[in-house]
Amino acid sequence: MPRAAIPEGRTVIEPVARELVTRCEGPVRVVWSPELLAYDFGRGHPMAPTRLDLTMRLARDLGLLDAPAVQVVEVQAAPDRVLELVHDPAYVAAVRAASHGGRVDPARGLGTEDDPVFAGMHEAAARIFAGSYDAAGAVWSGEVRHAVNIAGGMHHAQVGAASGFCVYNDAAAAVRRLLDDGAQRVAYVDLDAHHGDGVESIFWDDPRVLTVSVHQSGTTLFPGTGHAVDTGGLAAPGSAVNVALPPRTDGARWLRAIDAVVPEVLRAFRPEVLVTQHGCDAHGDDPLSDLDVSLGAQRTAAAWMHALAHEVADGRWVALGGGGYAVVRVVPFAWAALLAEAVHRPFGTSCAVPSGWREQVEVLSGTRVPAVVELDDLDFRPWSGGYDPSDDVDRAVAATRTAVFPLLGIDPHY
User: Fold this and answer.
1) DSSP 3-state assignment of 25?
2) How far apart are CA 30 and CA 46, in angstroms?
3) Is 322 helix (H, G, I), strand (E, B) or coil?
């Protein structure tokens, strides 16, 4: 779609963009098997596999996986030769030693409070890695148009170290697969509350990859990185885009920040495929961040990413999970909404919760869930409506636009 099709002063989700999404429906791959629940750091750890289990139970009860075009695909653990496309061989060996022999290696992030060692860790993490790697290959080959791996999004893992609950970086694996298969321009957009530091660092000097992260500022949240002035390496200026938001940014201002940056940089970069990470820990109920982004805002952002994939990348879209630690009341609904968007059955402004799922949740967790969950359709002010220098979110957005837009050939004041 030419840029002129999105009128000035409007958001990315316009009738013309939604029409493109509807017209381009096609096969969708959903990576899932119960074996993915084996990625389990143990009782009390925030990265509880229950969040995945509840999400997929909800998706099934809502009928999201029943359409003939939806392929639910199991994967096996990635072999070392595939893991080593992203990670150092010595690190892969260290993970295997930790997994099979309990050998901690704090220098490589193994055996820390965030990433405790557990039996089978290597295989569990390698299975998640394979899910995103294979999903990207299926999208690039044209076998499917969209692919979703909600178990994925392990964006903090570094080339040679575990970090922030992430052992192997499947998001980087998806990008690497696309490059190796022939893509010349890949865009990665990360909407997790925490900066997508691992993916950014891996592709810091690669001009073929644009990494975009919208997150709580590293001055107030782990991992402490992702500042507006971080715009890519010497070989790839403008390849990293960071929107670092202040604590308590709400859903309307979060959407305003996304609208002010993400569509413009994607249109300038012109990716051939879009990889997105949908960590839902930006929600106000999440215990590990200080943002206040509603389920409705997250549903809207997923719809925007879908529309942008059709606008700039001919519909080629790989969507991943990520963070999210409000296990019952947030994660299943945020990621069911993502799945619904990907399979072209998008949620409206509310979700009627199947009674069987509510009963299962009460048995498993003792938590009562309402019969209807609201996903408010937020009224936000587009960036084209003007910049407010007294607003801390607007200042953060302006800092990003000033730092990176000129490197991409975009007027930051447009």
Assistant:
1) coil
2) 24
3) coil
CA torsion sign, 226 to 229 to 230 to 231? positive
- Which helix (H) or strand (E) segment holds residue 257: the answer is helix 251-269
pLDDT at 400 over 60: yes
How would residue 365 be classed by pLDDT, with cut points 50, 70 and 90?
confident
Distances (CA, A) of 262 to 24, 243, 255, 309: 22, 9, 10, 12
Residues 24, 310: contact at Cβ < 8 Å? Answer: yes
- Show the 3-state SS of 182-251: CCCCEEEEECCCCCCHHHHHHCCCCCCEEEEEEEECCCCCCCCCCCCCCCCCCCCCCCEEEEEECCCCEH
Is 70 exceeded by the pLDDT of residue 10? no
Buried b (16+ CB within 10 A) or exposed e, 27-65: bbbbbbbebbbbbbbeeebbbbbbbbbbbbbbbbbbebb
Whole-angstrom Cα distance, residue 161 to residue 151? 20
Tell me, what DSSP letter sits at residue 354? P
Q: What is the pLDDT of residue 410?
A: 97
Active site residue ranges:
156
Query: Per the confidence metrics, is the pTM higher than 0.90?
Result: yes
Which residues, in sequence order, are bridge partners of residue 277? Answer: 190, 320
At 232-282, the pLDDT tens digits run 999 999 999 999 999 999 999 999 999 999 999 999 999 999 999 999 999
Rounded to a whole number of angstroms, the CA Rg of the chain reads 20
Contact 383, 259 (CB under 8 A): yes
